[in-house]
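note to self — DONT lose this again. spent like an hour looking for the file last time. sequence + predicted structure for the chain T wanted, 352 res
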Amino acid sequence: MRTEWARRISLQNLRPLASLLSEDLAIDLGTVNTRVYARGRGIVVNEPSAVAVDESTGEVQAVGKEAKEMLGRTPAKIRVIKPLRDGVIADFKVTEKMLSYFIQKAHQRRALVHPRIVISIPSEVTQVEKRAVTDSAYRAKAAEVHLVEQAMMAAIGTGMPVTKPGGNMVVDIGGGTTDVAVISLCGIVYARSLRTAGNHMDEAIMNYLRRKYNLLIGERTAEQIKIQLGSAYALDKPLTMEIRGRSLLEGVPKSTTIDDSEIREALSECVSSVVGAIRVALERTPPELSADICDRGIVLAGGGALLRNLDKRIREETGLPVCIADDPLCCVVLGTAKLLNDFRLLRRVTVD
């Protein structure tokens, strides 16, 4: 009897310590950026999904912002790796190291932490891809791992009434994938994950400048051009930008000036793919939910939602009201974070 009483006292004393060592985390594991939310402290990590590795020794040289700054500027033996491609894990070992680094950083370098983790993933991922994410999190010392769909998390993060009967359409345009979903009663009625998103827009800009100007630029320059000049619909005031790269004909540094209409032309195929996916989703939505979407409109989330006049283009193509989330870059991780305090909802939306 005394032994059982002592055991209970011991467990009660350990619970605060266990809680301290297993702080729950919500992770938006993105192709371009990874964001980590710690319960009670908010977003504690918001860094690029990149790892610099010394290929001669296999040691990690830098992770996150430091690794991205090395992109295109490293010696031959150091390679900057983006371990996620099109929203899924392309390099298992590097993803594990990256997750371990971010988890420890979220817990302020405490080595003994074993948190419960909720991770958002794109729609339509395979069982093998789900297992890769789960295994990476467990190898990074997670105690429990729950997977949820990014589109659902984006809808929750934007404040849409997903628990009620009624159609809610969200379009989450990330770095590797664009998720289009119609949600009702905590379930996804229709979902499609399109492998066309921010990274593909950068590649389209690089290819366009290579074809038209014989100018070779890097990923970082292409991203800057997209941010400064990119648009999905004609702008009220034209924009121009001087860009620098390497001439493919002469092999020497070269600069030229481009305008927003050229970049809009470069991005036209990517934008058309996103708009086409939205139209298909609307065609396949049940009539009753379509009526709800007519009233509530379409919500855009993710970094791609910040492309100038994208909402105007979708509004003109569909005839529906379109709005951009208040915090499009963080709404997925904020939606995931809400599940840390509502495990009943987490059980309803967890991916099997």
